[in-house]
Amino acid sequence: MKIRLTLFVILLNSVVVFAQHHNSKIRKGNTAYKDSLYSDAEQLYREALMKDQSSYEASFNMADAIYKQERYSEANSLFKALSEKTDDKIKKSESYHNLGNSLLKEQKLDEAIEAYKNALRNNPKDLDTKHNLAYAMRMKNQNQEQEKEEQKEEDKKEEKEEQKEEEKDKGENQNEKGEQSEEEKKEEPKQPQDPNEMTEEEAQQILDALQQQEKELQEDLQKKKQQGVKLKILKDW
């Protein structure tokens, strides 16, 4: 009995020393964190976890230290794992809250909004989470409005480009038609002249000649009228 009691005391002392060592690492890590020595804090929390892998406090604080070093992807994984690890609603809410912050830093707005909502489902009275949720939703709306404006500008730019192309094509078609018309004119074969065909100039000359002859004939007849007609005398048998 005495031996068993001695072993129990030794075992109890070992657990106390182990716990003190583990808590000491966390306290030192917290001091480094407050001094903004986030890398040192992370290392101390890791050493605490080597003593007690189930320590929620060491895991949570280490995730915070990693977040402060802007390793957001790694912090996301840790906060998500912590939110799934605990059944304590307050701790779960805190993990989701920090997960939302880390996702927000990566501009993953939809995921951040969902994380904040999960935090509020576990702790609806958390004002900080409500504030951050409103901020994330406002950022999302602003981004959507900006995307709409950018899309409008892009559409206008494309429309102008299309108009330019259409005007360019229209001008090229007109030039091609003009060139084609000129070529057709140039290539239009000359019709051979009919040897029997009278030119307009020749016809006019003939008409003038006929008119002149008619005029002379009329003048001659007029003279004969005035002089009288001389009859031939017949011989008398």
At a glance:
By secondary structure, the chain is an all-alpha fold. It has helices at 2-34, 38-51, 56-68, 72-85, 89-105, 109-122, 127-187, 200-227.
Structure keywords:
single chain; 237 residues; disordered N terminus; disordered C terminus; mainly alpha; 8 helices; rod-shaped
Blueprint of the fold:
Elements: H1 2-34, H2 38-51, H3 56-68, H4 72-85, H5 89-105, H6 109-122, H7 127-187, H8 200-227
Helix pairs in contact: 1-2, 1-3, 2-3, 3-4, 4-5, 5-6, 5-7, 6-7
Protein model, in words:
Residues 1-12 and 228-237 have low confidence and may be disordered. It is built from 8 helices and no strands. With 237 residues, it is mainly alpha-helical. Helix 1 runs parallel beside helix 3 and helix 2 packs antiparallel against helix 3 (56-68). The longest helix has 61 residues, at 127-187.
Helix content: over 70%
Mean pLDDT: 82
Low-confidence stretches: 1-12, 228-237
Instruction: Quickly give the structural class.
Output: mainly alpha
Give Rg in angstroms. 57 Å
Tell me the major beta sheet: none
How many strands in all? 0
Name the beta content range. under 5%
Question: Element order, helices and strands?
Answer: HHHHHHHH
Distance N to C terminus = 213 Å
Shape: rod-shaped
* Individual helix count: 8
